């Protein structure tokens, strides 16, 4: 594949990975933010499984849940917009470096049955999660390594607005859902679900087999029982566990069982077959429940008594003292039923929370901070909106998210395109005109530059320079003329020539600024002689002195930093031309040393295409060959820096250029002059080439 195609393929791959990651991180962060308590419970499960639950303060899992959702969501949005690339790719890499081995451990050891990476919205097995993470790790490494290929959608001027608004939105969403209830409910106890139907197993389906173990106490002695040897009522119920023995059809709701705390009776059927209204005060651990709204809860209970509605407090706290303490503290008169802890946490994400059912169908749910009060409970439920099934649907939630998140960001995007990018474009155009006055006229310079190589003593060089100066004096010149001489000539030759007619340059310079580099000559030393140009990357230096793309990159920077113009040489060797690889080669030479430059710096460069097989060999590239590759070089500059810069870069041809072929070569639209070796050592020959522009 040619270099340009490789470049396009890398761009496509990195951006595909970036969108995959963005989508998954946004989804994962969003579903966690919607249900912060769910993620909190999951983190608690992890801590318990790893025996670390006592190590952190009780608020830590919830805090971590909120931070994790905000982190994932923000990384996703930043990746989507292609902003803050370093931060977003580094954070996603760190996240995946931690998550991938962790999920491998989970898959192998199974300490928690589902990882919870997408909350309850999309439950994966531990092995599915691990393989998903392997794919994501590959994508993350790709975007981390290729971050510069990520195409950005908003300018640097507005990226702060996108980042800040995203963080604000996701934190607000988490806190809102924590304070109220999840705005999207992915669990089997959603509003509108019928609990009895959710528990039904279709005819013929084999149910999962669970073994229930009950812990009961008598005379201070605790013992475990199963349903087969369940003892008489002199034993007091303490706790129960349910272990899956054989997986079969699993109804959405399989663990809803209400045991009257005082009588020990299972009243599930009685409650679910009741055609009237029933309130459940769900307090999975009553000792941890928030008691700040107890008056309101008691009022709701009184209201139920008055209208003949059921009211039960469902809890998994089985200790008498815990329930009694609640009763003492709150004056609760309502009955208590015992239920599985996980079921209660699944039913409602608030402790306590309130659920209203009728005929086993869930009509409404309230968090502790949002309980209905006397102003709402003004009549029988039959006559109130409250007694009907709440209509807020997922569509409504998605509309709200679009309204409060997507639309503001689209607005920012629009503003960015309309105002910021337009201003930036204007400023860039203005800057470019200042950088290179030629851009104003859309004309690039024609240049004929001589490369003396390692020829001429100082005296001979002085004579050659003087003669050339004289030959050009009084002549009308249609191109810039440059002579690049050995270092020792520079200081003597520069003052001898008319700077308005002839520019002087070096043939090389050091890749270091200054210091202990014996035998080297720095760019600043070259500049101090009054010279204006430096040839860099000549094929002889690449071949005989091992100059690499990396050293040349340094040299280019130093040359530019010292106010000099690099004449940067590129070109292929014969075998590469014969293998038709010339475009690939010149592209990699350009990309390897120049394409990291800013547009402003790149606009200062002069390029010289010199096929190595034509240098000093007498073989010249044909005019058509020269035009073809010069046009290709210019097209890569268009891709990298845009048409305006490409149109204004001079690209010289070098390689056995003589007065006899210069005219034909220079007549090509993309050939802007020549870099001349042998013919530059003789005034007449050199002038003959310069005159090619006069004809
Ligand atoms: C050169 O060395 O840059 C060059 C083009 O040499 P010649 O003109 O001698 O081929």
Description:
47% of the residues lie in helices and 14% in strands. It has 25 helices and 17 strands. The protein has an eight-stranded parallel β-barrel, surrounded by seven helices. Helix 1 (3-34) packs across helix 5. The protein is elongated, with a radius of gyration of 39 Å. Bound molecules: phosphoenolpyruvate (PEP). Residues 451, 610, 615-616, 654-657, 675-679 line the site of phosphoenolpyruvate (PEP).
Rg, Cα atoms, Å: 39 Å
Terminal CA distance: 42 Å
- SS element count, helices: 25
The kinds of small molecule bound in this structure are: phosphoenolpyruvate
Report the mean per-residue pLDDT as an integer: 91
Shape descriptor reads elongated
Low-confidence stretches: 435-442
What class would the helix/strand composition place it in? alpha/beta
Helix content class = 40-55%
- Record field, number of beta strands: 17
Percent strand equals 5-15%
* Biggest beta sheet summary: 8 strands, parallel, barrel
Secondary-structure map:
Blueprint: H1 3-34, H2 36-49, H3 60-81, H4 85-109, H5 126-145, H6 159-179, H7 195-198, E1 209-218, E2 221-225, E3 236-246, E4 259-260, H8 268-272, E5 277-282, H9 294-307, E6 310-315, H10 320-330, E7 336-338, H11 341-347, E8 353-358, E9 361-367, H12 394-435, H13 437-441, E10 447-451, H14 458-472, E11 480-485, H15 487-493, E12 502-506, H16 523-528, E13 533-536, H17 539-544, H18 549-561, E14 565-570, H19 574-578, H20 582-593, H21 599-602, E15 606-609, H22 623-641, H23 643-647, E16 651-654, H24 659-666, E17 673-676, H25 683-690
Parallel strand pairs: 5-6, 6-7, 10-11, 10-17, 11-12, 12-13, 13-14, 14-15, 15-16, 16-17
Antiparallel strand pairs: 1-2, 1-3, 4-7, 5-8, 8-9
Helix pairs in contact: 1-3, 1-5, 1-6, 2-3, 3-4, 3-6, 4-5, 6-12, 14-15, 20-22, 24-25
This protein binds phosphoenolpyruvate.
